[in-house]
């Protein structure tokens, strides 16, 4: 399983249940990476999408303990149910996409984390763990900086050397 996100200089990932930055290159990377795959999210992330609709061309799994079942995505009510559902798929094609609590809960189970680093401070109220300070994670890839939409970004990949199994 992998996690995918963008983070500012302070590892901020969101503000007011939304993204802090609208960067087309980051959105394109996210879309191309997750399309045709499985995305795992919490209920607030689902609610943050336009009209609360799941992402197109992906299998959407939502941890939503009080949520009712829907035809357009898979709703699970507990972490145990979530793990049972994820086991049905090739875990190399499963991406955790938010929010902060889902990232925090599932990070130990992710073998890889794809982070678009934005060289800015976005006024976050939700944060991701600083992987540069986590001894279980190693930076294995970092792109050259690119200027886009007034921001400097770098695409990075971290490997988890102590992945937990579920």
Secondary-structure topology with pairs:
Layout: E1 2-7, E2 12-14, H1 24-34, E3 38-42, H2 43-48, E4 59-63, E5 74-76, H3 79-86, E6 94-98, H4 100-106, E7 112-118, E8 126-127, E9 137-142, E10 146-148, E11 151-160
Parallel strand pairs: 1-6, 1-7, 3-4, 3-6, 4-5
Antiparallel strand pairs: 2-8, 7-11, 9-11, 10-11
Could you give a short description of this structure?
The protein contains 4 helices and 11 strands. The protein has 166 residues and is α/β, with parallel strands linked by helices.
Question: Characteristics of this structure?
Answer:
two-stranded antiparallel sheet, 11 strands, globular, 4 helices, 166 residues
Describe this structure in words.
The protein contains four helices and eleven strands; from the N terminus they run ββαβαββαβαβββββ. It is α/β, with parallel strands linked by helices and 166 residues long. The strands form two sheets. Strands 1, 3, 4, 5, 6, 7, 9, 10 and 11 form a nine-stranded mixed β-sheet that branches. Strands 2-8 form a two-stranded antiparallel ribbon. 19% of the residues lie in helices and 33% in strands.
Kindly report how far apart the N and C termini lie.
Answer: 11 Å
Structural class: alpha/beta
Computed over alpha carbons, the radius of gyration is 15 Å
Number of strands: 11
Mean pLDDT: 96
Helix content: 10-25%
DSSP strand content: 25-35%
Total helical segments: 4
* Major sheet description: 9 strands, mixed
The arrangement of helices and strands along the chain is: EEHEHEEHEHEEEEE
Shape: globular
Low-confidence stretches: none
